[in-house]
Amino acid sequence: MTEIEKKKSRAPVPKDWTYAPAPESRDVVKLRERYGLFIGGTWVEPTESYETISPATEETLATVGQGTKEDVDRAVAAARDAYANGWSSLPGSERAKYLFRIARILQERSREFAVLESLNGGKPIKESRDVDLPLAAAHFFYYAGWADKLEYAFPNRRPKAVGVAGQIIPWNFPLLMLAWKLAPALACGNTVVLKPAETTPLTALLFCDVLRQAELPPGVVNIVTGDGRTGAALVDHPDVDKIAFTGSTEVGKAIQRQLAGTGKKLTLELGGKAANIVFDDCALDQAVEGIVNGIYFNQGHVCCAGSRLFAQESIYEPLVDKLKKRLETLRVGDPLDKNTDVGAINSAMQLERIKELVEAGKEEGADIYQPPCRLPEKGYWFAPTVFTNVAQSYRIAQEEIFGPVLSVLTFRTPEEAVEKANNTPYGLSAGVWTEKGSRILWMAQRLRAGVVWANTFNRFDPTSPFGGYKESGFGREGGRHGLEPYLRFEE
Ligand code: NAI
Ligand code: MG
């Protein structure tokens, strides 16, 4: 038999190359029907509660507490007690042991946490499994390392813990944001009251079991679920020494006003409208991957998402062609399916906001492109979207959409790219794609953004500080810089 005959005799080439479903098992997660508030190391029965759902199916997953002002009061008292009676005077090396334990337990239980994160938040399992969980554990490992070296991080400055920290986190990276907040706070000797976002409380509640396993002393970490009212009560509490907030610019501004003159320390990590700038000398296919990762990762629910693509005019057409082709291969659907690239939109409210801005884009005159894809009937979904023919003044070029929607703009010279990229009230991140190293440095110097990625995007590491300029907030999380907001210095 000749080679060609051999090939012919094999099974016919399948006509349909779509992927078979590959769902991750839900069995690893044991959900309770109801969750209380985690205060002083025990579960406290809430007076009010609400149901938390899966945004992919709208099924109810559990009933959780809506923390009241009194609950916040109790949690702050528990945190104060734990601070005064042991935690703050523990040697750094002892605090480090707890953090190392938490990091290791998160690694051991990572599959369980990843499944729950995808279930409650709608993000693809491959992202929660390969990004959120490893990074969350890495943050605890990293700050565990600093706990007994604070004097070396800030030589001659005698660092001391601040006291009780109130931390309010969003729904786009629920467990990762918890890790970003808790790890440096605990490493520096503070105690914490943390409020998860109302749509994604479940991984934070499961995390309480990690704290139990790690035998963290009661009251060092308290978790009070609830919506913005619970958050506002925490901000308002007179016995909280520091507030760390990640969320919308609108709420961030309100918090800053509320805290003005109180002497409480504050860090804000708010919205963004990042420029992803592609020069004509870049590796085009890699840039396309970076653009896709920049805006469709986590359904675009990313404060540092590369939501404004600036393409140099000379490569505009091939770039947009390649991008549209690539979009056709993105698989939208079940977050628990290992082949899914784009999962569910986090909430009905967020879906409304995305739809409103996309409508505004169409009305203002931009051209919309969405690849053919069938969206599930139940749940909250939005197809990956590209707008071309976008003017700088359009709302889709100005406002944070926080969804899988990209606006494409153009430029001719590096100077023009910088000017357009900086033409935003935000300044969280930016991306530069070019083969020329000197141009990367030239751009990075001029872009008013906390993070500038070169020939990559959305890359995170606990050793690297993250934070904004202008309306994207102030203060840094990650790295040695991330310790500073949780310390005061006795000069
Ligand atoms: P949000 O800012 O209202 O929610 C973030 C967190 O703040 C949640 O835990 C929420 O319960 C809490 N919160 C709300 N009002 C509060 C108040 N008055 N005092 C204290 N805490 C309060 O954000 P939302 O409404 O979920 O999303 C609206 C827009 O904000 C999104 O479309 C997106 O553009 C942006 N956003 C940005 C995030 C980021 O990572 N920078 C994260 C979430 C949203
Ligand atoms: Mg809100």
Summarize the structure.
The protein is 38% helix and 16% strand.
What does this structure look like?
This protein is of the alpha/beta class and 491 residues long. The protein is built from 16 helices and 19 strands. It has a seven-stranded mixed sheet, with helices on both faces. The protein has a six-stranded mixed sheet with strand order 8-7-6-9-10-18, sandwiched between helices. A two-stranded antiparallel sheet has the order 1-2. Helix 11 (284-296) links the parallel strand 11 and strand 12. Helix 2 (69-84) packs across helix 9, helix 4 crosses helix 5 and helix 11 crosses helix 12. Residues 228, 248, 251 line the site of magnesium ion.
Set down the secondary structure blueprint.
Blueprint: H1 3-9, E1 37-39, E2 42-44, E3 49-53, E4 60-65, H2 69-84, H3 92-108, H4 110-121, H5 125-146, H6 150-153, E5 159-161, E6 164-168, H7 174-187, E7 191-195, H8 202-213, E8 221-223, H9 228-236, E9 242-246, H10 249-259, E10 265-269, E11 275-278, H11 284-296, E12 308-312, H12 316-328, H13 348-364, E13 367-369, E14 385-388, H14 395-398, E15 405-411, H15 414-421, E16 429-433, H16 437-446, E17 451-454, E18 473-474, E19 487-489
Parallel strand pairs: 6-7, 6-9, 7-8, 9-10, 11-12, 11-16, 12-15, 14-15, 16-17
Antiparallel strand pairs: 1-2, 3-4, 5-19, 10-18, 13-14
Helix pairs in contact: 2-9, 3-5, 4-5, 5-7, 11-12
The protein binds 1,4-dihydronicotinamide adenine dinucleotide and magnesium ion (MG).
